[in-house]
Amino acid sequence: MNLAHVHIVNNSRACARGDLAMARAWRLLCFHLHNDARTIAIVPELPDLAILADAFHAALSGRNLVAAEALGPLTVRGTPTELAGFSGQRLERFHRRGKFLWLEFDRDRIAINAMLTGRLQLAQTPAAKRPQKTLFVMRFGSRPDDTGPRTDAAEWTFDAGWIPKPEATPEVRYRDPTQMGKIYLLPHGMDRTVPGAGEDEMGPDADDPNLTLDVWRSRIRSHPGELKNLLRNQAFVAGIGNAYSDEILHAARLQPFRKRGSLAPEEVDELYAAMRSTLSSAIATLRERVPPTFETEVRDFLAVHNRGGQDCPRCGKRITQTEAGGFVTSYCRHCQR
Ligand SMILES: [Zn+2]
Fold first, then answer.
1. Residues with CB under 5 A from ligand 1 (ion)
2. Can you count the helices (H) and strands (E) in the chain?
3. Residues in CB range of 189: below 8 A, 6 or more apart
4. pLDDT-based confidence at 41, cuts 50/70/90?
């Protein structure tokens, strides 16, 4: 039963009883459900997570974890004892690999796979209001030895106003309305599988400097199939999902359902160049637009994804959109070949 159906059935039942307050409550509930459903389309990808990793590393590394709370037991893979063991550990590094975020403490590690609707908030103080559906919280201590910007932080984060003050005790809150995301506790010496993060499941990151044009040319040879699926295949190249695959293909002027085998050698090279330029320009935009509300996904600057029926920014003709396979694919039939 879909949400619209729930809405209609329950609304008519409530109205049949003449219970207007009930009908109003249902309308309100359904409004929130629809809003949550709409966020499902906005899945974090490499540019979103790259911003988050840079920012959270700059804000939190060098601080000790004071306490962690698992409010949504389904979200956390690990035991309460393991979770308690993180208290007092210093966060050394917060980084991204593919669509995963990694927190490296001085002894143990945490991996986060936000999946569809998982979002991380950086709260300057524990007193800041927690978002609804907060399922996991990490409270960090002050940075007593703070002497200005961290030398290992990304340059764009230097002097950012949202970096918590040295004496602050910031919190990271993980919220997830669909509860599909997972947080993996990885105590040192424990062999807990993180599905999707294995070395054989994940190719090089799409922005990895070691993924040179030559490496790309040789890797792409062993991956047949349609171009959109190819870009979304984490084993081929990691970090790209539904939205940025559409953007990259538009930039490369290639149609999403073209087969890799039909590409001329220069088209293989154009696809590589488009991947790099699309991701780096998205990251540059998001650095300006996202902080300090890291829990919101900014997508309004995209050229084609989710813009079916609108004008193509390159040729002015109508953007085509399909939902084949259960996900949105948007492209321009006129200037993508
Ligand atoms: Zn076009």
1. 312, 314-315, 332, 334-335
2. 8, 11
3. none
4. low
List pLDDT tens digits, range 97-131: 999 999 999 999 999 999 889 999 999 999 999 99
Q: Do the beta carbons of residue 43 and residue 232 sit within 8 Å?
A: no
Nearest in space to 154 (alpha carbons), one of 43, 302, 291, 272: 291
The model's pTM is: 0.86
Q: Which CATH fold topology does 213-331 show?
A: Helicase, Ruva Protein; domain 3 (1.10.8)
Q: What is the mean pLDDT of residues 236-250?
A: 98
Q: What separation in Å is there between the alpha carbon of 216 and the centre of ligand 1?
A: 26
Cα 280 to ligand 1 centre (Å): 22
Check whether domain 46-186 has CATH 3.20.190.10, yes or no: yes
Residues 6+ apart with CB under 8 A from 306: 41, 243, 299, 321, 328, 330
Mean pLDDT to the nearest integer, 162-191: 95
Strands (E), the chain: 65-70, 76-77, 91-97, 100-105, 109-113, 119-123, 134-140, 171-175, 182-186, 320-322, 329-331
- In angstroms, rounded to a whole number, what is the distance separating the alpha carbons of residues 246 and 253? 10
Per-domain residue ranges of the chain: 3-39, 46-186, 213-331
The alpha carbon torsion through 143, 146, 151, 157 (nearest 10 deg) reads: 70
